[in-house]
Amino acid sequence: MEKDNFRLRIRLRHIHCFLAIAQEGNLGKAAERLRLTQPAISKTLAELEDIAGCKLFERDRQGARLTPRGENFRRHALGVLEALDAVSDSIGLDPRPEGAVVNIGVLPSVGADLMPPALAAFRRSHPQARVAIRTAANAPLLDMLKGGEVDFVLGRMADPQMMVGLSFELLYVEPLALLVRATHPLTAAAGVSLADVVAYPLVMAPPGTVPRHHTESLLQAHALELPLHRTETMSVSIARQIVLQTEAVWFAPSGTVRDDLAAGTLQSLPVGTKGTEEPVGLLQRSDAAMGHVAADFIRVLRDMAASRRPALTGHSG
Predict the structure, then answer these.
(1) Is 63 left (phi over 0), alpha (psi -120 to 50) or beta?
(2) What backbone torsions phi and psi does residue 316 show, to the nearest 5 degrees?
(3) Residue 193 confidence class, pLDDT cut points 50, 70, 90
(4) Could you tell me if 239 and 190 are in contact, meaning their C-beta atoms sit under 8 angstroms apart?
(5) What are the structural domains, with CATH classification, of the chain?
(6) Half-sphere exposure (CA, 13 Å, Cβ side) for 46?
(7) Contacting residues for 274 by C-beta, under 8 A, at least 6 apart
(8) 306: exposed, middle or buried (C-beta count within 10 Å: 0-12, 13-18, 19+)?
């Protein structure tokens, strides 16, 4: 009887309200997003929790956080909307190519290499599609994916607890490289060591990221401490300019600046980085129904990664 009651009482407005709160983490912002008043949002949420017979959010001054049951509800609520989209596609309600939208979450260090050529290839078959690319660290990207804000993520495998409800498809593995400008003093030195490198200012990813973990592990393996004279950033463009304009050494995957390395503007120092290999791949929601346009973009990324895989190497010595 409880299931029958749930089916009879729940409405799409409840699901839209729930997902807006889950994605925004705040009832006020969810109300703005849905163009409703905050009391209306609160009332709809109260109705939904009464129908569900459980608490879906923990609310405090910081906002609204999903409870464990709320996390389960979110997964299936997204599936409901995706199923409705599939139904509308199947009966030709929106056959126009200009109506297609692909939302992609991308790690900055990965996106700088793969996304421009992949987008160019995708445009040949979908010239009118709108592509929205959101960049962030891996953990926020996975939250966006779980919340349905992006169709898929080009990123890294995460800890098991963060991968619940998600699948990971490996595209390639790439180690860190130690990148400097072509006229850097270390490019002319013989037998460069990590001890030589840390004498210079360093540029690296911020704490809590996989590249930062590998950077610290590499230094520790050589009995070196993380120096104070370092700059921490997720921005590829900022890091690149720092390295081009100063004598800083940048710890990053070489694919991030593939064109600069090919042109000789930047160089990778011949320092062993074995053990810093990072698996990069596609992350999707396990129970999601992928739209055909997003699926086409994924196929392009697979082909792009396969064609570049032999070149994605670092110094392993």
Answers:
(1) left
(2) -100, 0
(3) very high
(4) no
(5) 2-90 (1.10.10.10), 98-173+280-311 (3.40.190.10), 176-276 (3.40.190.290)
(6) 6
(7) 175, 316, 317
(8) exposed
Confidence band, pLDDT 50/70/90 cuts, at residue 40: confident
Q: Which phi and psi angles does 181 have, rounded to 5°?
A: -70, 160
Which sign, positive or negative, has the C-alpha torsion 217, 222, 227, 229?
A: negative
Q: What HEC string does the chain produce?
A: CHHHHHHHHCCHHHHHHHHHHHHHCCHHHHHHHHCCCHHHHHHHHHHHHHHHCCCCEEEECCEEEECHHHHHHHHHHHHHHHHHHHHHHHCCCCCCHHHCEEEEEECHHHHHHHHHHHHHHHHHHCCCCEEEEEECCHHHHHHHHHCCCCCEEEEECCCHHHCCCEEEEEEEEECEEEEEECCCHHHHCCCCCHHHHCCCCEEECCCCCHHHHHHHHHHHHCCCCCCCCEEECCCHHHHHHHHHHCCCEEEEEHHHHHHHHHHCCEEECCCCCCCCCEEEEEEEECCCCCCHHHHHHHHHHHHHHHHHHHHCCCCCC
Taking alpha carbons only, the member of 15, 4, 174, 126 closest to residue 79 is: 15
* pLDDT tens by residue, 255-278: 889 899 999 999 999 999 988 988
Spatial contact of 79 and 59, defined as CB atoms under 8 Å apart: no
pLDDT category of residue 97 using cuts at 50, 70 and 90: very low
**CB burial string 115-150: b at 16+ within 10 A, e below:** beebbebbeeebeebebeeebbbbeebbbbbbbbbb
